[in-house]
Design goal:
Distance between the termini of chain A: 33 Å
Strand content of chain A: 25-35%
Strand content of chain B: 25-35%
Pfam families (chain A): ACP (PF06857)
InterPro entries (chain A): Mal_deCO2ase/Cit_lyase_ACP, Malonate_deCO2ase_dsu
Order of helices and strands of chain A: EEEEHEH
Largest sheet of chain A: 5 strands, mixed
Radius of gyration of chain A: 12 Å
Oligomer: heterodimer
Order of helices and strands of chain B: EEHEEEEHHEHEHEEHEE
Number of helices of chain B: 6
Largest interface: A-B, 17 and 20 residues
Strand order of the largest sheet of chain B: 2-5-4-3-1-6
Number of domains of chain B: 2
Structural class of chain B: alpha+beta
Organism (chain A): Aquitalea aquatica
Largest sheet of chain B: 6 strands, antiparallel
Helix content of chain A: 25-40%
Number of strands of chain A: 5
Subcellular location (chain A): Cytoplasm
Protein name (chain A): Malonate decarboxylase acyl carrier protein
């Protein structure tokens, strides 16, 4: 079990809380709560050790530009494939801005 | 015509059979797999004469995606066949493994659902092979065959019986087009469908049962 914290700059607080995904093998759960303006804090709990570099690369692509809403994001990964991870993250951000 | 295999089926390959891989084999593979152990059919687009399989590694998140020659498949065991054997009842580690106790407790409700069901994941592997794969913290993975959309009341009742069990139980609905998590289907709204060509988000969950595929089973060509 690996726990990874990532911090990014962000914009105004997210407008709502979001939950997508499921606690199930090969899937993941993404929970988003609004945070104070300017801060995006992501905590990843992953079943797969040694996955930190992959997570960092994937989340940098989405958040490094600081344009996302300010949020606290928790990701619980149960061995999701990269395809499932991308889809779930896209789904979470889409529902956040819906 | 070779018999089609379904995702999660366990396959025993003929001795000396060739497994092919798209990437380098992980270091653990030679120590943890030999032809006496089954491989697990996984979802992937077809290659003529080959079937996409996975091999379990020593740690629960370790899997290796491989291809096996269809001609070298000896024996196959489906998740339903593993369930029908009811191997948990006589299992020497029943008292130590919450996943097997959960199976024992859930069995009447699964039978009452009227749906074909099977055991996958580490519980399925251990029951099929006798090789230890389960630990005290292991979840129980099950599948329900749903050639048509299941009656909501039936699967809702099943989901409610999961609450009091000694471990987490993941139930996947096997639709004609892929697998959907029961929890997400019951929640309403969008669902993630795992198909042979990758995961898809469905805005409308019933799209997993398109009219022309109803009553079909998803196959691994």
């Amino acid at each position: 079990m690996e726990k990874l914290h990532l911090h990014y700059p962000a914009g105004a607080p997210a407008a709502q809380a979001v939950l997508v995904g499921v606690v199930a093998s090969g899937d993941l759960e993404v929970l988003i709560a609004p945070a104070a303006a300017g801060s995006c804090h992501i905590v990843i709990h992953s079943a797969a050790d040694g996955s930190a570099a992959r997570w960092r690369a994937q989340l940098d692509r989405l958040f490094a530009d600081g344009q996302a809403a300010a949020m606290q994001m928790e990701i619980n990964d149960f061995g999701a494939t990269p395809g499932v991870v991308s889809l779930r993250l896209a789904q979470a951000l889409e529902e956040l801005s819906a | 015509m070779l018999k089609p295999y379904l995702p999660h089926d366990l396959l025993w390959l003929a001795p000396r059979s060739a497994l092919a891989t798209d990437t380098e084999l992980p270091a653990w593979l030679p120590q943890h797999w030999h032809p006496g152990l089954p491989v697990v059919v996984r979802r992937a687009s077809s290659r003529p004469g080959w079937i996409a399989v996975g091999v379990r590694g020593p740690l629960r998140w370790q899997r290796c995606a491989l291809w096996a020659r269809l001609q070298q498949v000896g024996r196959a065991l489906s998740p339903e066949q593993v369930a029908a054997q009811q191997g948990w009842r006589q299992h020497p580690r029943l008292a130590a493994l919450p996943a097997l106790q959960a199976l024992q407790q859930l069995h009447p409700a699964l039978q009452a659902s009227g749906l074909a069901w099977g055991i996958t994941g580490s519980a399925g592997f251990e029951l099929a092979t006798g090789q230890p794969a389960l630990g005290p913290a292991s979840d129980l993975d099950l599948l329900l065959r749903c050639p048509q959309p299941p009656a909501r009341a039936v699967v809702q009742a099943l989901a409610e019986t999961l609450a009091g069990l000694p471990c987490r139980v993941d139930i996947q609905l096997q639709t004609p087009t892929g697998g959907v998590a029961l929890d997400e289907w019951l929640r309403g709204g969008r669902v993630l469908l795992k198909t042979a060509s990758g995961p898809l988000l469905l805005d409308e969950p019933l799209a997993a049962w398109p009219a022309h595929r109803q009553n079909h089973v998803e196959q691994c060509p």
